[in-house]
Amino acid sequence: MGDVLAHESELLALVKEYLDFAEFEDTLKTFSKECKIKGKLLSKTAGGSLRDSKSLVIQKDLIAAFDSGDQKVFFDLWEEHVPSSIRDGDPLAQKLEFYLHIHFAIYLLKHSVGRPDKEDLDERISYFKTYLETKGAALSQTTEFLPFYALPFVPNPMVHPSFKELFQDSWTPELKLKLEKFLALIFKASNTPKLLTLYKENGQSNKEMSQQLHQQLIEAERRSMTYLKRYNKIQADYHNLIGVTAELVDSLEATVSGKMITPEYLQSVCVRLFSNQMRQSLAHSVDFTRPGTASTMLRASLAPGKLKDVPLLPSLDYEKLKKDLIWGSDRLKAFLLQALRWRLTTSHPGEQRETVLEAYIGNDLLDCHSHGQRSVLQLLHSKSEVVRQYMARLINAFASLAEGRLYLAQTTRVLRMLEERLKEEDEDVVTRENILGALQKFSLRRPLQTAMIRDGLIFWLIDILKDPDCLSDYTLEYSVALLMNLCLRSAGKNMCAKVAGLVLKVLSDLLGHENHEIQPYVNGALYSILSIPSIREEARAMGMEYVLRCFIKEGNAEMVRQIEFIIKQLNSEELQDGVLESDDDEEEDDEEDHDIMEADLDKDELIQPQLGELSGEKLLTTEYLGIMTNTGKMRRKGLAGVQRSADEPLCRPVTPGGHRTGYPV
């Protein structure tokens, strides 16, 4: 009874408030009269009409501040009148508040005539950055909001693809509509009688708990069924394997006693043994009376297509070929370059391709060692776009093979011609792609890395990577991979240090690019250049760690761990990174030089033969058949090399084709 008396005034006020809200006028009069007769005191409560009027004024002021971009007034009203329990606990309110901060951060960019006031804009961006680092940090794990954490660090968000939707005409009106609905709902809820609120909260809490337990039960049952199916399958496979093993042991014992095993019996065992590796119809169709058939089936199931011999291609008359490549018509040159390339790209990997390449190199097909006024290499500067492109494709095909790179790298002549062509070629995307692809593969060799760094190729790469959306996927991947390979050398890092701010900005923008194939190379480049103290200092000044942490929840676990390594490097105080590639020793690493023949080499052919016109292998073997220009099998370099942890960023030279196919890096 004492507890009731202690809170009697508040309880009576709750009853009175509810009767007033529900418009029980007569009951309310009787209730108030009886309380007065009995001397019961009622707590003072604000009238409903007064509350409604005040709510409308607050809503109007909030909308006005939204429209005028008055950030301070808006958030002062927001924090004063929107209950903290809603602001901090309701997901919809948190999301709305996040977008409202974006609205005010970019308000000047959308509504200023001409260039916005820099001081005001910087103040708004700083306010938004503070919000992201404090209250807004809770949403950094949400994919929807993750890209916006980089907004304060992007110099011109209006042209950045990640923020395109923010600057569409429909974005602000849609956000305003969401705000109006939210405010109407919040202030209506604030007028609800406390008695009703207490009842609903208690009932809702019990209902939510019941629903949560029910959902957990359903999820547990689903997992149980999944595990049961897996268990049954494993158990069935186990019993099948035990049965086959027992039968094979019995068969071995029978052979000791002189009993023969019939082909039919062996076939039935193989059908059971290989049921998950090949079609049973295939097992039924094989002749098991031939010795070694079962082991052949097993090898074929594991490595199909490796059991047949591949013949060598016919020899060619290279003297006549080179003569026509120099003096023939542009159309003939193009068909010859195409046919020679196809010989490399379509030949079977192994002895057939090795023999083709050795014949090309032995006969100096590209005139790499020629000092004459006219040479095949000069086709890179042909007036014909088709000839230039097909020459670039052929060089890229050479560069795709380790021995081909060695042939092209005997002098820096080929490298200089490719660099010159790369900077001049802006009409034909495919030509530039193939020149860039060849240079990227050249960067697997240290002397060529050194030459490219000295020639300032890093600056050219940084310049084109400023606008990655204008590049083809091939150009983007090979540009970033080439940049990474050059940044692995101490000379390359020092070159980057001269334009540290620009390099860091370009690489941080590439972190969020939609082409995920480039991520390992971006990570590798960042990890490498951050070994330079001056670059680390620049990165810290521009908030690089914050940008990295914004992307750390995106992508797979390997990429996340690589970014963690980069952050660790960023916060390091070491003067040297100790990376193997950072020294300037020109000695080659055999394990890095592997073969990568891409399908892109033969994409989008420009020429097609007309009726009666020869092309491809038929052109070569009809018009240029030679005698004994193919020689023995060339020496191959081993691929057993240094491995890296998959967690770490790339720290040895790679090429995109080789990295995707899993060669040692």
Give a quick set of tags describing it.
665 residues, mainly alpha
Question: Could you explain how this protein is built, in words?
Answer:
With 665 residues, the protein is mainly α. It is built from 32 helices and no strands. The longest helix is centred in the middle third of the chain and has 63 residues. The C terminus is likely disordered. It comes from Felis catus. Keywords: Cell projection, Cilium biogenesis/degradation, Cytoplasm, Cytoskeleton.
**Cα shape:** extended
Number of contiguous helices: 32
Overall average residue pLDDT: 79
Helix content: 55-70%
- Number of beta-strand segments: 0
The biggest beta sheet is recorded as: none
- Name the poorly predicted regions: 277-283, 298-307, 577-582, 632-643, 661-665
Rg on CA atoms, Å: 37 Å
Category from helices, strands and their pairing: mainly alpha
How far is it from the N-terminal to the C-terminal residue, by CA?
Answer: 80 Å
Protein name: LisH domain-containing protein ARMC9
Subcellular location: Cytoplasm, Cytoskeleton, Cilium basal body; Cytoplasm, Cytoskeleton, Microtubule organizing center, Centrosome, Centriole
InterPro entries: ARM-like (IPR011989), ARM-type_fold (IPR016024), ARMC9 (IPR040369), ARMC9_ARM_dom (IPR048959), ARMC9_CTLH-like_dom (IPR056327), ARMC9_LisH (IPR048957), LisH (IPR006594)
Main location: cytoplasm
